[in-house]
Design brief:
By secondary structure, this protein is of the alpha/beta class. It contains 8 helices and 14 strands. Helix 7 runs parallel beside helix 8. Strand 9 and strand 10 form a beta hairpin.
Amino acid sequence: MKLKVLGCSGGIGGNFRTTSLLLDHDVLIDAGTGLGELSLAEMSIIDHIFITHSHLDHIACLPLLIDSVGFMRDQPVVIHATAETLQILQQHIFNWAIWPDFTEIPNLQQPVMRYEEIRLGETVDLGGRKLTPLPVNHVVPAVGFCIDSGTASLVFSGDTTTCDALWEAVNRIGNLRYLIVETAFCDAEKELAILSKHLCPSLLAEELAKLKLQPEIYITHLKPGEVELTMHEIGELIRHVNPKILQNGQEFDF
């Protein structure tokens, strides 16, 4: 199983792309602006999209993807998200005012998109590729994901602040190889991180102290303009596990 990083930034500009991860060739984790890196042919074979939460940097290209490739396919694209996130997508995005409701196009019997509810702790098995929603703590309903190939696992936090339940779940993953965790702000903006329910380096250090396993750790969701500062602060505070910056185009085989 292979996971490719299409976008992992907390903003846009230059080479910065927001969150989207491609699992093998047919599954997306989030649909931020990084999704635009794919060709039309590559987008047309995506069958499943798992959404961590409804914020724009994680769903910006979802409506455009459906519009671009929906009629090239003979099966609907399946959007996997919690009931709360699906409700937000229905009410605020695919509502005919912002974007057409593609669960009704071309008709209710054969739509180009359909919703599939996911629940915390309940695994979705896609041909042996197991994706399990994990608890996180954000300003809107949100989840992280554990992706398990059967040989090894990768955890993606999505957006979160401090969350004991997340680390309790992560510590139960015996084959954990990779951990991708957000740090959206530098420590000078700690109050903003707390208000918006994100992490900054000092909060990240407190969270990683709860981790009992030893995966490779990668940092995502860094704000453009603060990348070097935030990674320097992380390096000063968290020397024992050596977190690395997540990069566009990076691939994980597991």
